[in-house]
Specification:
This is DUF4435 domain-containing protein. By secondary structure, the chain is mostly helical. The protein has helices at 3-10, 13-24, 43-53, 70-80, 97-100, 108-111, 123-127, 130-139, 150-173, 182-187, 209-219, 226-238, 252-281, 285-301, 304-309, 318-332, and strands at 33-37, 58-62, 88-92, 115-117. The protein is 55% helix and 5% strand.
Length: 337
């Protein structure tokens, strides 16, 4: 089967309806549509947003059997973008497409209402909002406390990311918006190897200077045009990308890994403080009983993955607002039964 025939099958409303009816064993499931995502791990996120406005209207699946290969999954979906319709939606990480689509009048994101995207870099970017993250990390305390101000750290980090992202867009403009040297650019933000949490359990914001140095080195030989930089500043202003939220428009994987590292450093030091306190204040069997209790609390209540998996769409979150507005537009296009 050719790629064209493959796309024709999987975007045909009747084929999708028949597939749903057979899969669910219910004739009425024929009315349901299908949402194609890049990877199995994306389904949970998109279900939350789509089902909030269009409950039980769509099933969700991937367009490729390549487990864990999101890049391949997106490439497959991109080939089928023109065939998207009210019954066949595509839901993808925006990556840099959200930014570049505003400079390319032919980009599919501009005029196809049936392509949903994250309005930020990736699904991680959707889930990782600085205020909610800080609220979560403040709850990661038992009898001992920490002084980690994650929101302030991310604001400072985001200011650096803002300048770097503007320059990166100016750079790829010189190459007709081909996303080149992106791994090298993303690595500029990799400071996971640094000791970020100090002995008094506050965050060492000075480590962010390492990102400044990395970006300076990355752009040192790029010969960027000032006119291109100014154009990107205007673009960012039009898209409401600011110095405070720019961290959501660079690699979501890098941001998640950084936050995960900060979280692990904080909770490890906190756990050690809890154990030391128990040993100082308890005796006999009570020591092991209390240690088991603390270990259970840290494992069950303080996991970053749990926070992300239980995060629900928040209409006060600007990224969530945009996604929900896009889903609402699809609802408005639904035929009246």
């Amino acid at each position: 089967m050719s790629n064209s025939q493959f796309g024709d099958y999987f975007t045909n409303p009747n084929f999708v309806g028949g597939y749903n009816a057979i899969k669910e064993g219910k004739k009425e499931a024929f009315k349901k549509g299908m949402v194609y995502v890049e990877d199995d791990s994306d389904i949970s996120l998109w279900k939350k947003f789509i089902n909030q406005i269009l409950p039980n209207k769509y099933n969700f699946t991937t367009a490729t059997s390549s487990k864990g290969n999101k890049a391949e999954g997106k490439r497959v979906l991109e080939k089928m973008y023109p065939k998207a319709n009210i019954k066949v939606l595509f839901a993808v990480d925006a990556d840099y497409d959200f930014l570049t689509s505003n400079l390319d009048i032919s980009h599919a994101f501009r005029d196809n209402p049936f392509i949903l995207h994250t309005y930020s870099f990736s699904k991680e970017s959707v889930m990782l909002e600085k205020t909610q993250l800080d609220n979560f990390i403040q709850k990661c305390q038992h009898t001992q406390s920490h002084n980690a101000d994650l929101e302030k750290f991310l604001v400072l980090f985001s200011e650096v990311a803002f300048d770097g992202l503007i320059k990166y867009l100016a750079f790829i403009k010189q190459h007709n918006f081909q996303i080149i040297e992106y791994n090298e650019f993303h690595q500029c933000f990799n400071i996971k190897s640094k000791i970020i949490v100090t002995d008094d359990l506050s965050l060492d914001n000075s480590v962010i200077h390492e990102v400044v140095v990395n970006l300076s080195h990355f752009f040192s030989q790029k010969n960027l045009a000032e006119a291109d930089i100014q154009q990107m500043k205007v673009l960012f202003d039009s898209l409401n990308i600011t110095r405070e939220n720019a961290y959501r428009f660079i690699s979501g994987h890098e941001i998640y890994d950084l936050i995960e590292e900060i979280h692990e450093q904080v909770t490890k030091k906190l756990y050690d403080k809890e154990i030391n306190s128990i040993k100082q204040n308890c005796t006999g069997k009570a020591i092991q009983e209390r240690i088991k209790q603390v270990k259970r609390i840290f494992e069950q209540s303080f996991k970053l993955a749990t926070f992300c998996n239980t995060y629900v769409p928040n209409e006060q979150d600007e990224i969530h607002q945009r996604i929900l507005e896009q889903v609402q537009k699809i609802k408005d296009l639904q035929p009246i039964n």
